[in-house]
Design a protein that fits this description.
Blueprint: H1 2-15, E1 45-54, E2 57-63, E3 71-73, E4 76-84, E5 91-99, E6 107-108, H2 110-116, E7 120-127, E8 132-140, E9 143-145, E10 150-161, E11 164-178, E12 185-201
Antiparallel strand pairs: 1-2, 2-4, 3-4, 4-5, 5-7, 6-10, 7-8, 8-9, 10-11, 11-12
């Protein structure tokens, strides 16, 4: 069972633009999230920002429209939100992944994804100079992991936009961080319902051949 769960988590991390140095609750996959140098964000869209509370700190996560982090391809919409904390050092990155066939009025949950044979996930990565932590809830290969985690991505609107698609809706989630063994919970984080909106340009299509992952400007982002 432990091996199966590790494979599922590896598959989830492989969806993201880069792999990470073994964070708390994730298998060692090589690489390094943290470059050792502070690289300022170039900003993001204030419109549709996601607001989360982590360890007593309220963080406004801004949508990143860079195709390195937000895209529609391989049958999935991947939306990336990120921000530095008040200490100017801790980086918070949240990913929402859901089927590109999703329409207005749909509510995507792990149970829905498993029943429909789809994949969907919500991942929050907290990166500092000391460590990286992954909180997540995923529906992969017909399995919801970690057990007890959940999310709801309610899509209020999905509309054509100039060169892409505009999404608006509400996100809520209970995300869990697992111990490195993958067998026990190391912590959990609740995201009360919060509104989001973003526009992703372009569409690579599910048949697009995967290419090498480019190195992001901010090496602490994945």
């Amino acid at each position: 069972m432990k091996k199966i769960l590790s494979i599922l988590l590896c598959a989830l991390l492989a969806m993201l633009p880069a792999v990470a140095e073994a964070p708390d609750g994730a298998p060692d996959m090589g690489g390094d999230l943290y470059s050792g140098e502070q690289v300022p964000r170039d900003g993001g869209s204030e419109e549709g920002a996601l607001v989360v509370e982590v360890n007593g700190e309220t963080v406004k996560l801004l949508f990143d429209d860079s195709p390195l982090y937000s895209s529609v391809q391989n049958d999935l919409v991947q939306a990336s939100y990120s921000a530095y904390g008040s200490d100017g050092d801790t980086l918070y990155v949240l990913y929402m992944l859901f089927p590109d066939t999703a329409m207005a009025g749909m509510v995507i949950t792990p149970e829905y994804a498993v029943t429909a044979g789809e994949e969907a996930s919500v991942v929050l990565i907290i990166s500092s100079r000391e460590r990286e932590q992954y909180y997540y809830s995923s529906a992969l290969a017909g399995t919801i992991y970690p057990a007890g985690s959940t999310f709801s991505i309610a899509l209020d609107s999905v509309d054509p936009a100039s060169g892409g698609t505009a999404y608006a809706g509400r996100l809520s989630a209970t995300l869990i961080m697992m111990e490195p063994s993958g067998e026990r919970e190391a912590g959990r984080l609740t995201i009360p319902e919060t509104a989001f909106s973003f526009t992703i340009g372009g569409y690579a299509g599910p048949s697009a051949a995967p290419g090498a992952t480019p190195v992001p400007e901010d090496m602490r982002k994945v």
